[in-house]
Amino acid sequence: MKSGKFWAWVVFALGAAYFFIPLIATVEFSMRMRRGAYSFDAYQIVLGDPRFQATFGYSVLAAIFTIILGVLIVVPAAYWIRLRLPQLRPIVEFITLLPLVIPAIVIVFGYIRMYGSNSPLPFLATDMGTNALLVIGYAMLALPYMYRAVDTGLRTIDVRTLTEAAQILGAGWGTIIGRVILPNVLIAVLSGAFLTFAIVIGEFTMASLLNRPAFGPYLQNVGANRAYEPAALAIIAFAITWGCMSLIQILSRFAPRSANRPN
Amino acid sequence: MAEPFLSIQHVRKSFGATTVVEDFNLDVEPGEFVSFLGPSGCGKTTVLRMVAGFEEPSAGKIVVAGKDITRLKPNQRNVGMVFQAYALFPNLTVAQNIGFGLKVAGMPKADIDRRVAEMLDIIKLPQMADRYPYQLSGGQQQRIALARAIAPKPKLLLLDEPLSALDAKVRVSLREEIRSIQKKLGITTIFVTHDQEEALSISDRIAVMYGGKAEQVGTPFEIYNRPATKFVANFVGTLNVLEGTVTDAASGRVRVNSEEVLLKGKLNGSKSGDTLSLALRPEAISLGRQPGRDSSLSGEISEVHFLGSVIRVRVGIGGSTVSLDTFNSPAAPPPAVGEKAEISFSSSDMLVLH
């Protein structure tokens, strides 16, 4: 074996160990609830806990609404910027990166000030309003990922020519976006959707400060008061995230291939 | 003269301070095949895009079948278009691509299927209905794009350099196919190209464009044999350009190198002593004196290229070089470089460039 290949394998093994050892340790610890034997007791307790089901269900619902809101905002915006306003792309990219720079706690305090019961837009006056505000906040947090995913998808197709080809065949904007653009960037949109899902499921700050019964605050609460269950929860959350990532990989195989490959 | 089917009247297009199309006028008869020919940046695609509705003219109007369509949106014009990059929808099959415009128009499914099958027969790809664009060659994709454009029976067909992305052999066969389909359907067609051979071979008329203007509009024969401007003469075909001085304007005598050529009726108001650019197509020139050729010039052979069936010869005349082709004859060896030579031509074939 060539020495270069040997060292490549060593580096790979070290990287894999760095990643897998804590994971294996967490799995192992989560299964030691029963004295002297490995068991799935911690998982049974967690999955059987009504608060787990309620908070997880709440976060899944919030994630679905966040994805819908994100797609409705990002797809037309990214499409229009590519088609008609390419000069605005750097500015929009900068704006979409802001959620990575501004801490969620700053944003949520801003929300509380702006949308309190006495404000002109009193989102926080009702539970539904607060839920809506949380979804809006999540859509904003997921913006860097959703925008990049969709923009990358749009880059793989000739947006302008496909739009013009559809227009000259009589299509209006709804048909163009629904039948031509969206199906060709669907995999990118789904990638953004799964990343959004992974972010929303584990989000703590916004849900906690807006006092919503979400999965993130539940994870923190269990982690602070129990021994084995937090490890089981961490593994479950990890499995959900990895499940989402795997789905992105699987779906990307079904992406429509470009028609514009050279002859 | 019958009412033109497409009338482009005094159209101008500016992007900011840059004017890309200036006072463009063209009338196209029903069923006519007109090519816009010109170098990159001459405005030919911009005119086509204005006819399609993708660009709005800064001034002027566009009339199709008596209706002013200048301000109509592209999806309201009933115009078909084929793009250079094919622009097939990657997520749809060939049949779905061809049927796209019909579905948008709300045609019943059975009628769409019938029309798609008819289109596939016309483009001779009946077995490709269920394929996806990525499974087709460039030539096949462009034929599908053509079928998709003509399926909704548009009033006008626009072809924006549809052959540019294809290899040479496919280009020739596809251009013949496009012309034959166009003739069969009788659809009025505008074809944009920068390839003169393409334009000359398939057009009823050609609009040669330069600097945002139509330099000349005419049949391929007129454009090639009677170019109206220096640009048209240089751009279309190969041209030998010689400098000449008018020695006697009244009788049409012009001195080229040290010999005189008689150009009666071609001097267009030039005065004695004026310098002129004279042009000759290679096929109008013969090596040596030939019967029926009233003019000749002497020079020296500077290059000889044996190309099989023809021999390309370059003859230096004064400060200019004249290129001509002669047929290969096994009985006669090719001329040698450095030999003195005489070229002959008919003065009626000589063009005076203004």
Automatic annotation (TrEMBL), chain A:
Residue spans crossing the bilayer: 7-25, 56-79, 91-112, 132-150, 185-210, 230-251
Subcellular location as annotated: Cell inner membrane; Cell membrane
Main location: membrane
Chain ranges of the ABC transmembrane type-1 domain: 52-249
GO biological process, one term: transmembrane transport
Transmembrane helix as UniProt keyword: yes
Database matches in InterPro entries: MetI-like, MetI-like_sf
Pfam family name, one: BPD_transp_1
Membrane-related topology note: Multi-pass membrane protein
Keywords noted in UniProt: Cell inner membrane, Cell membrane, Membrane, Transmembrane, Transmembrane helix, Transport
A cellular component term, taken from the record's GO annotations: plasma membrane
CDD domains, A to Z: TM_PBP2
Family under the similarity heading: Belongs to the binding-protein-dependent transport system permease family.
The protein's name: Spermidine/putrescine ABC transporter permease
UniProtKB/TrEMBL annotation, chain B:
One Pfam family from the record: TOBE_2
GO MF entries: ABC-type polyamine transporter activity; ATP binding; ATP hydrolysis activity
GO BP: any one term: quaternary ammonium group transport
Location of the ABC transporter domain: 6-236
Gene3D superfamilies, per the entry: 2.40.50.100, P-loop containing nucleotide triphosphate hydrolases
Keywords noted in UniProt: ATP-binding, Cell membrane, Membrane, Nucleotide-binding, Translocase, Transport
Top EC class of this enzyme: translocase
InterPro entries: AAA+_ATPase, ABC_SmlMolc_Importer, ABC_transporter-like_ATP-bd, ABC_transporter-like_CS, Mo/tungstate-bd_C_term_dom, P-loop_NTPase, PotA-like, Transp-assoc_OB_typ2
Key word Nucleotidyltransferase present: no
Keyword Transport: yes
Physiological role: Part of the ABC transporter complex PotABCD involved in spermidine/putrescine import. Responsible for energy coupling to the transport system.
Record text on subunit structure and interactions: The complex is composed of two ATP-binding proteins (PotA), two transmembrane proteins (PotB and PotC) and a solute-binding protein (PotD).
Family label: Belongs to the ABC transporter superfamily. Spermidine/putrescine importer (TC 3.A.1.11.1) family.
Protein name (database record): Spermidine/putrescine import ATP-binding protein PotA
